[in-house]
Amino acid sequence: MMYQQSKAEKFLRVKKYDEESFHRSIRLTLIVGQMFGLFPVTNVSSKNYKRMKFTIKSLKMFYSFLIPLLITALLIQSIRVAITSTENEPGCVFGVAISHRAALSNAVFYTATTLEYFTFFWISSKWPEFQKLWKTMEIKLNSSGNDCPKIWWKINKISFGIISFALIEHLMWIFLNIEIEKQNALKNCLNDNSSYEYILNGLGESYVIVIDTYAAFAWTFTDLFIILVSTGLAERYIFMNKLAMDSKLLNDQNYWTNLRINYSILSNLVKKADKLVSPLIFVSITNNFFCISSQLFFGITSDNTIVIFFSLIFFTFTLVKMAITIYAASRIHQESKIIMPLIYDCTPSEFTIETERLQYQLEFDNVVLTGFNFFELTRRFMLGID
């Protein structure tokens, strides 16, 4: 009877761990991303991470490859307008009038989003194997306690919040462009008044709005993906730190051995994650910097009240989004050092060779996410930006 009860408890515990696993927590967000051509991994919706695979010959891959090609068409047209137009003579992109400065800004933005799409191709090819490593970490670390970090609700709450705010921001952007057209701030892109010309112009405007929406979502999803990966790793550090702080086994050498091994496992996973997402971090941070600078410039130099108002709103939204992204990633580095005071406070009887090895590991092991190794996402980096 006791054996059956123990077996039932173990089954319930494993089930709870699976429900709070990173794969199950992030899969709803990845499904939303796939609707916009991002993350072409099959069976992302499956509860079993082992069913995921990256297949080049698939509809998801075709769809994901088509979107950046359509964005590239907008990019080419924006570059053409940026080269041929002037401040006093705007140009047209698929029937949509656009100023010289806006064309320059759009060219950089579309370049960044195209790079983000192709970076997600590369990440998707590595994702199934990376999730196996993540699951191995979860199994090993969960075996040392009777609980696990509660991340399902937290990750989905973050996703809902950021996507909702991004949707509001994009609707405001569309409204701004409609208002500018109503005010006749730009030239008429029609060559004549024929019905055929109106139809082509309408199709062109629809094309720009739809593809621009895809590009805007890719921009938001890139930051969101970095935030969620960072949150999953940071929450694991927070949970492990709490177990270490609450432990009463500080004079047990086996305890320090297991603790050191657990921190090593998590540190190695962070390094694997950095290799995976560092190109995305680099593109994200540089794109956000440019968007912040351009929106601030438009807001300061424009004499249109509506443009000034919305530019400041977009500036604030992008600044906050970038700050959240950097903060989420910097938590990993911060939490990896939290238990250092616990080691410093050890009595001579508790300070074993394993304690010393753990201290050395935590002091000299640089656990941090980077932007292609050009910069490290730490609190110091965040303060340096401010």
Automatic annotation (TrEMBL):
Coiled coil: none annotated. GO terms for molecular function: taste receptor activity. It is found in: Cell membrane. It is a multi-pass membrane protein. One of its GO terms (biological process) is sensory perception of sweet taste. Signal peptide: none annotated. The chain crosses the membrane at residues 62-83, 103-123, 158-176, 216-239, 276-300, 306-330. Keywords: Cell membrane, Membrane, Receptor, Transmembrane, Transmembrane helix. GO terms for cellular component: plasma membrane. It comes from the Eukaryota. Belongs to the insect chemoreceptor superfamily. Gustatory receptor (GR) family. Gr5a subfamily. This is Gustatory receptor. It comes from Aphidius gifuensis (Parasitoid wasp).
